[in-house]
Amino acid sequence: MKRRGTKTAESRLADVREQASEILSENGNRLMLIEALGLCLLTVPLYVALHTLCMMGVRLLPQLPLLVWEWILAGLIFFLTLLVTLPLLYGVARMASCMERGEEVSLSDLFAPFTSGRRYFYALHASFHTLRLLSLVVLMIWMTESAIAALIVDPVLAWGIGVLCFLAEAVIGICLLYGQFPLLAVTVHEECDADTHESLSALSASSSQRYASRFFGGFFFRILLGVLSFGILLLWDVIPLMLVSYFRYCRRINDNDDLIGG
Prior knowledge:
By secondary structure, the protein is mostly helical. Helix content is 78%, strand content 0%.
């Protein structure tokens, strides 16, 4: 009986992916999302520039400890990600949400979060909740590496323990992020339509993790192929498909469509 329910869930997720693929084939939606993602990649030189400036600072001000420069770089990266990069990605997600609802979208909608204080607030809200979890995981990994380097002399033993700790912390990080699975849809729906986000925001952390594991599990092999294609397939097909599928999937959850099939 459980296997039958799993097959039902898989078939319904397949329906969501098929509907998302049809949406992407209309009105140049796929190309528009690809162009938007390409524009987001223009933030990469900003991170390189910050790293270069901090390395110049290390040479020009050697009296400051290297650890201070590392924290300065980490802070600059944090705020650039919070204030610019993630709001841009929120704009991409907002475009995908509009496409899923059948609305007309233009490339300029990528910058919609920066056009008003209200929209920027919603973008920062989603960005902060995601970034604080990522920062927590990164901090855990950094503290673990420092503790292992300080307490364990044997390099082989230190490497083995480090790998185990990294895997454990990665699992913890995934569980934390999975618990925030409906956050993006809730934020976009609250911005665009205040009447459609209530059941999503009421999901428990365990339910969110269950929905997230089903959703990302359905894209696992596509993501793997995308990585093996050096990111080409990710940019051309996987990420646009996942974005539109995500909002259609959340719509099914919001409509109480028994998506996970028991």
